[in-house]
Design a protein that fits this description.
single chain, Rossmann fold, six-stranded mixed beta sheet, two-stranded antiparallel ribbon, 8 strands, 39% helix, 19% strand, disordered N terminus
Length: 160
């Protein structure tokens, strides 16, 4: 795995409340892990920086071809994917993940589609994306969506 794919912030922000240890007595720091898929290196770097500076552990790839490999090696809490990518695009990735990892929250992003961006984002939402964001979006929009997705999944997991 290349070193460019892995980025970790040394800062620990309060992304989600601390989890409780198996004994139930002492809280442990929990660092949510995000996988970012975007063929645009600048956008991928920006999304990575925003999330890692907020305390997330970030992995990134230029498309969805290796997503199952990464999901098999790491515990990923959230996927942020561009929709239009030359190899394995976001729609293909979201569709495949609904079968292999149905509880993994997905944030779909797009803005430079040759066709209608809104149509792609609508399709992503119907396929199960937790949230969709039009590029360009503000960092606080991305952070709010990421925190909400992880909190929602954390709540669903703890209630089952």
């Amino acid at each position: 795995m290349s070193s460019q794919m892995f980025e970790r912030s040394n800062r620990l922000a309060s992304v989600v409340p601390p989890s409780v240890s198996a004994s139930g007595s002492e809280p442990q720091d929990y660092i949510p892990t995000v996988l970012i898929l975007d063929d645009d290196e600048d956008c991928r770097a920006l999304v990575s920086a925003v999330l890692s500076n907020a305390g997330f552990l970030v992995y990134s790839l230029p498309d969805g071809r290796r997503v199952n490999e990464i999901l098999g090696q790491y515990c990923i809490d959230l996927l942020v994917t561009d929709i239009v990518m030359p190899e394995c695009d976001g729609i293909e990735t979201i569709t495949a993940l609904r079968y292999s990892h149905p509880r993994l929250p997905v944030i779909a992003i797009s803005g430079d589609a040759p066709m209608n961006t809104e149509l792609y984002l609508t399709i992503a939402k119907k396929l199960g994306a937790f949230r969709v964001l039009n590029k360009p979006f503000r960092p606080n929009q991305l952070l709010a969506a990421a925190r909400e997705a992880i909190m929602r999944e954390s709540t669903l997991t703890s209630s089952t």
